[in-house]
Amino acid sequence: xxxxxxxxxxxxxxxxxxxxxxxxxxxxxxxxxxxxxxxxxxxxxxxxxxxxxxxxxxxxxxxxxxxxxxxxxxxxxxxxxxxxxxxxxxxxxxxxxxxxxxxxxxxxxxxxxxxxxxxxxxxxxxxxxxxxxxxxxxxxxxxxxxxxxxxxxxxxxxxxxxxxxxxxxxxxxxxxxxxxxxxxxxxxxxxxxxxxxxxxxxxxxxxxxxxxxxxxxxxxxxxxxxxxxxxxxxxxxxxxxxxxxxxxxxxxxxxxxxxxxxxxxxxxxxxxxxxxxxxxxxxxxxxxxxxxxxxxxxxxxxxxxxxxxxxxxxxxxxx
Amino acid sequence: xxxxxxxxxxxxxxxxxxxxxxxxxxxxxxxxxxxxxxxxxxxxxxxxxxxxxxxxxxxxxxxxxxxxxxxxxxxxxxxxxxxxxxxxxxxxxxxxxxxxxxxxxxxxxxxxxxxxxxxxxxxxxxxxxxxxxxxxxxx
Amino acid sequence: xxxxxxxxxxxxxxxxxxxxxxxxxxxxxxxxxxxxxxxxxxxxxxxxxxxxxxxxxxxxxxxxxxxxxxxxxxxxxxxxxxxxxxxxxxxxxxxxxxxxxxxxxxxxxxxxxxxxxxxxxxxxxxxxxxxxxxxxxxxxxxxxxxxxxxxxxxxxxxxxxxxxxxxxxxxxxxxxxxxxxxxxxxxxxxxxxxxxxxxxxxxxxxxxxxxxxxxxxxxxxxxxxxxxxxxxxxxxxxxxxxxxxxxxxxxxxxxxxxxxxxxxxxxxxxxxxxxxxxxxxxxxxxxxxxxxxxxxxxxxxxxxxxxxxxxxxxxxxxxxxxxxxxxxxxxxxxxxxxxxxxxxxxxxxxxxxxxxxxxxxxxxxxxxxxxxxxxxxxxxxxxxxxxxxxxxxxxxxx
Lengths: 319, 139, 398
Known about the structure:
The complex is a heterotrimer of chains A (about 325), B (about 140) and C (about 400). Chain A is an all-alpha fold and about 325 residues long. Chain A contains 13 helices and no strands. Chain A is globular, with a radius of gyration of 19 Å. The relative contact order of chain A is 0.16. Chain B is an alpha+beta fold and about 140 residues long. Chain B is built from four helices and seven strands. Chain C is an alpha+beta fold and about 400 residues long. Chain C has 15 helices and eight strands. Chain C has helices at about 45-50, 55-60, 70-85, 90-115, 120-140, 160-190, 190-195, 205-210, 215-220, 225-230, 250-275, 325-335, 340-350, 355-360, 375-385, and strands at about 5-10, 20-25, 30-35, 150, 155, 290-300, 300-310, 320. The longest helix of chain C has 29 residues, at about 90-115. Classes of the chains: A mainly alpha (about 325), B alpha+beta (about 140), C alpha+beta (about 400). Chains in contact: A-B, A-C, B-C. The interface of A and C includes residues 131, 134, 137, 208 and 280 of A.
């Protein structure tokens, strides 16, 4: 009985839905505020993201006439949220342990985190509008570009740590902080690739507003659109937590309040870097993005894996 | 000549700068000295030449004589004094384009440009800026 | 791959004003583009005919929100030509000052819009923040930020005091430093280069054939600038360079506009440091002698052509305005073809379109149709609604 209650707590409160929503909205505010500051603007107030969400939730949903799969159209945003929450359960947050802990959960997380992207593709495809159709084509094209470098870069720390478990990886680096420096290239690659995953400048091609209006989300409105936005915010938290666990040693062996504070600080630092990248660049074209990812990011991530293997097998044989 | 992250210095610099945004409704804006906004009319000065009405690009000015009954007076020594005509003016702020052409054209400086620019109103009647002659209001 | 048609406009985030571009796409590539205008027709020319020369000036000033001084000056130069007035030199100098400040303002605005179209919002915010300096300078001189209303037939309405010269000079110098930074930023940032180089190519012969004007023509290597070719106001006596580029693409247009801003600063410094003394206006009669005049003015977006006809009455008999965007629109469909959908927004923005300046009455009469007079239209309308059971024949219109 208590186990069921605990499971419910994990799923609904922490680190599941409630925490992800609250912290996701906060991260959205933090990102927007930083972005505004960097542009010498004032930026939104702390509760602006919440107000936006509440406003969207109270709005009417308009479903275009030519949507044939209305049920799918309605259900897709929830699938995205569910996928993000599921992924969150496998990542260590404030302590070294995650809720669902098994050997190979790193791979599982990376797979589950592609589900929101795929739902965005389906969202655009079922919307039946030219803008969304082009947007969803771009979503898929982009997926093939950033996903491989991201996965390869994420695997490098695992190779060095000799484990496919995110908790083990974070514990490994927490006990040997200097080894984190080995994965610097991988960290850079994954931060850039994440801009593609989270669809932010310079890779916000799927919903480039000056080209295809709202992109895949053009036909969405009201509650459904609110949930899509929420899923993206939650995804940002989960991804930042993943980077934190895989590359930065997670909670560094701490737990409880201290571990939680450390987690918040480190994820905010990651959000800061993401905001910085966003403010420094123009949006690129889809074929330029493909070329960039395959020409630079993919070779760099392979180089990172090679470095990790060399470190593991030759230099650090004693491990 | 491409240099990546060219904007980095400026962006980081701005992170610690005060935002350039002016907090308008909280902090009042002071317009320039020559700012053209709400037009003020002094009825006592007006001689009814109608130059302002004729040249107003938006036809926003209406000047009417209020003492149509006034007649020229003959003084005891035989001199004829022309009637003292009095005027009132309505400036339609919803039509006015604030070019201040009327101010430039007025030979008696009866029209003046002020820097009152917060003129939005919920009621259209509030935009009818009426300037009554003091004698009329006294009656 | 199947072709799909994507509407860009009349309402679209990339366009600041309504105008319709129908893009026929093959994947991401544009194979055909159709342009449709006419969403913004305001009847400015006809309205000018029912106003006197002073009223019409304020109306013509409102043809465009950005180049308001350009249109007003071109119109006023026509009026002065008809009246045979000799405009004082000081008035001309003040017109040049406002005109060049306006060019700075317009180009900075364009830089921001272009940066936004390619998703570089940081540059957009910075350039618009610094554009405030120009707006403030204009407000100090003229009393307003957008519609300066500086012109009057025969000269200018307000003088520039020595104190104002100092403030404006300081602002111009501060702005010059910022502009140099933006030139560095926009021409060295790799993502900007990637998005602008080789995009929207308009070769020189095509630019000439399609009568491109302003920065669009100059970026295709056509050295055409009214300030140099047919100097008006004081431009014949000023020292400035005609900026051209042989890049023929969006990057070239960016380059031309950026360096034109520096030239504008140079002109401003010359004129402000050397303001001729004297009156600022001469009297112009209310009624102009019959005749007609055409004047050209190099607006920030290109060449403005104004035509004015007087029949000796109080009001102009005919006013014709040709805004530069009209000349540049013919090149847009050529530039769009073969490029990516992602580039459509920046290609359209690169001509700095101003739709409402451009929209004039267009009468399209395909073979077999005639022009309907007001009376015909009215009787047609009555017939049309009679069939639907509504009788409008008793409604008095006039």
